[in-house]
Write a structure and sequence with these properties.
The protein is an alpha+beta fold. The chain has helices at residues 42-45, 72-83, 98-105, 126-134, 155-160, 211-226, 242-250; strands at 6-9, 18-22, 28-36, 56-63, 88-94, 109-120, 141-147, 168-175, 178-187, 194-202, 232-238, 254-265.
């Protein structure tokens, strides 16, 4: 039998949509909510971001272990679909876990697998890294920017603005004033010591010149100068983007985990 539960709104302080599944006596059996897919605007900054659909929202569902396999997650999902006017729901699920079956059963379509990799600074050979950064790339020069990412910035606009203290570092290869390649790192809470890297991205017309490796090596070096408390960098890339993953591996990133991306578009699989 389906348990007696009340699904009630429980928005956070920002007013973002959240729901709770309340069991008898007020205990919380599960929670669900919607988040912006890319809260830092990185879907516009980086064409390799996991999802770029307009109006998409990230769906997160969590059910307490003792309440699992009792329909709690399904009821939370049904409530969200009834009460939230969102054209596309996106969920990121650890690959190989029961969450994949849950989303497939409810009509979500698997759109890609995202591979996460980790670089630890204590494993980086600084002299070798310096040689990569100092290598000549005729017609290109390195440029950096640091500050806070607000809104949906363009790389060109960031690089033209003055650097300042902030949570992000951008490194780019410049070709006569045009951005040829770039990579971004965003630092979370300083106490955690981990930065998240997006990219590198090499624009058409500049590929095949090892710019990806160059700007990434320079970012690794620059990030530690700007944020000395950072001890590791987590990078992500689509599992089928072999060039990007090869760049990460060459620089010393090691496999961390895999994430499956599921989407439900316009109320059904797309």
């Amino acid at each position: 039998m389906e348990p007696v539960l009340d699904i009630v709104p429980a928005p956070d302080q920002s007013g973002a949509p959240r729901w709770q599944a309340l069991a008898p006596h007020g205990s919380v059996a599960g929670v669900a909510g919607l988040w912006p897919v890319s809260p830092l605007g990185l879907d516009l900054l980086l064409p390799t971001a996991p999802v770029t659909r307009p109006g998409a929202a990230e769906l997160r569902v969590y059910v307490e272990p003792e309440w699992r396999r009792r329909g709690v997650g399904s009821r939370l999902l049904t409530t969200i679909r009834e009460q939230a006017a969102v054209p596309c729901l996106v969920s990121y699920v650890a690959a190989g876990t029961p969450g994949e079956r849950f989303y497939t059963r409810h009509g979500f379509r698997h759109t890609r697998t995202w591979r996460h990799e980790l670089l630890t600074y204590c494993d980086v050979h600084q002299a070798w890294l310096g040689e990569l950064v100092d290598a000549e790339h005729p017609g290109y020069r390195l440029t950096h920017w640091a500050g806070d990412l607000l809104g949906a910035p363009r790389v060109e606009d960031l690089l033209r603005s003055p650097s300042r203290p902030g949570n992000a570092v951008v490194t780019a290869a410049d070709a006569d004033g045009d951005v040829a390649a770039y990579v971004v790192a965003v630092v979370g809470a300083p106490s955690r010591g981990r930065a998240h890297q997006y990219g590198p991205v090499v624009l058409p017309g500049h590929r095949g010149r090892r710019l990806s490796r160059w700007v990434n090596a320079a970012l690794i070096q620059r990030l530690r100068e700007v944020h000395p408390r950072v001890t590791e960098i987590e990078a992500g890339g689509a599992e089928d983007d072999r060039r990007l993953l090869a760049t990460h591996r060459h620089l010393g990133f090691r496999s961390l985990r895999r994430t499956s991306v599921y989407e439900l578009w316009d109320g059904g699989a797309s």
